Give the backbone structure.
Amino acid sequence: MIRISRTNQWLLMIGMAMVLTFLAALLIGVDMQSFQTGFSATREIIATFRLPRTTIALTCGGLFGCAGAITQNLFRNPLASPSILGIEASGSLFVTMALLSGLGTIFQPALVTGAALTGCAVAMLAILKLGAGRGKEEAQNNRLILCGLALTTAAGSISSLLLSLSMSEPGKAGPLLHWLLGSLAGKHWTDLAIAAPLGIAGLWLAWTAGPALDVLALGRDVARTCGIRVQTTTRQCVIAVSLMVAASIVAGGLLPFVGLVAPHIARTFSFKSRQLLPASFCTGAILVMVSDVIARTAAGAQELQTGVITGVIGGPFFLWCMWHAGSYADAQNENSRGGAA
Amino acid sequence: MSPEQTGKSLRHLFAFRSCISASIREIQLLDRGPLLRRGFTREFPPGKISLVVAPNGSGKSTLLRCIAGIVEPSTGSIVFQLDGSEIKLPEDPVKKAAVIAWLPAEDDFAFPQDPLDLTLAGRWRFHQGKPSQNDIEAAQACMMATGLPTDLSIPVNQLSSGQKRRLNLARVLCQDADILLLDEPFRGLDNTGRAKVSALLEWLAQAGRTIIIADPLEANPAMQDLR
């Protein structure tokens, strides 16, 4: 009982840390002189610019964090995440195609959302199909990551190709590049209004799939013999991840590595998926809010892209994960050799 | 949970009942080990521990996977019987989990899960995500029966190989299925663990369960006890 309450205490603390980061992100900014110009000016800056932007950072980070936790459990791979498996890249490719296709601008929000959702779902289904093969778990894991990398590279290259072909039309290429780099500058409540229903639906599906996903983390065959309806749970997770990633990239653009890093930090606090999801939400939200503050303030008046900052933090963390996974496997082999001797 | 409570809970959990048996009839899988390449026929009666002892790579694990319905044999059939009459296994995984429980040869825990949660995965057919106090008590009793403390708070991926084996066994036991397919259940266990598990399996066989054990070692002391 003490152990469970301790886990809940961690969850409470990380939730409070998220709220405090949110409040701090509202107050921190380069235009500190606005405090001197008067309270009403500061209030306006916060209400008009920082509140929607920080709320979007919180939502996108949280959704990426949850999508990462689900992806890792579903594929039984600690290195799986929406960005590593090409889900994000595929979503962005479909959005790029939709934006450059020149289809009616009135329907653009619906078009972008639909495109992102289709792209994410296509990538998830492709990874499920390509990554599942016969053989040992380790070989399957490697295969999965390689498929993901191939998909990420292919989708990223096609996006770049389309972008370079559209450079002659600055009106199209400029905003697209801004979006592809994961900038939260100039985000408004309307961006959140589009993403929120998708995000909420995704979170609800993820939450209801949570206990089954815990068992699925033991392997598909074991889960099936335990009584899990593997196909139903997998489908539910594919839809949940697609909804959450699509909502995030529609509202905030590409924020690489958040889906990988957030669940790993969350796992240090909690072992249970019911607690892992809220903990991943909080850690993802904190990561993106902090990255956004750095993006706003690090280069003075010049704004950096939040997605670039999350990549700068997430890249080295991914390398650390790979190194850690390698040394863990070495230790396991060493143990089994010792055991056999 | 005290040892008395555990004993009571185990007696309640594994009360005698008529269980389903399995008959393997000429099953063949051409690309697998010699056991299945030349065709395999055998009866696995209820209330008995059946041993499948064969060298590494002979196809024992695949045989268990065939019975569990994970692998489809190329030819032949697996017939399930209850009280002498042939029955068809339900398609629904929840209902099927009441018939077959499977312990894979490897304890591959990818994530730092809670040991009690992992054991409770075996009770999924009863709780489907919302474990009751009964389920928790059953899981704790099975953990204790395999020699693990019920308040074990080490993440499962950090347990020793013997502890992982015991935990995975506890998961299979608390599923309380008619047929227990156990792939190398004694691997990595110490002498006390082997004795505990052997005694538990004998008790389960007396309670009517169909127990099928695959092991490569003819000279395994625990297997000798079970013969």
Observations:
- The CA atoms of residues 42 and 62 of chain B lie 15 Å apart.
- The mean pLDDT of chain B is 85.
- The first strand of chain B starts at residue 21 and ends at 28.
